[in-house]
Amino acid sequence: MIHLCAVDGVGVIDYEDHAHGVMTMVESSGGGQITEVVLHPEVTVADASMEEEARPLHGKLPAVCFFARSVNFPITHAPIIRAQEN
Question: Residue 72 gets which letter from DSSP?
Answer without folding.
Answer: S
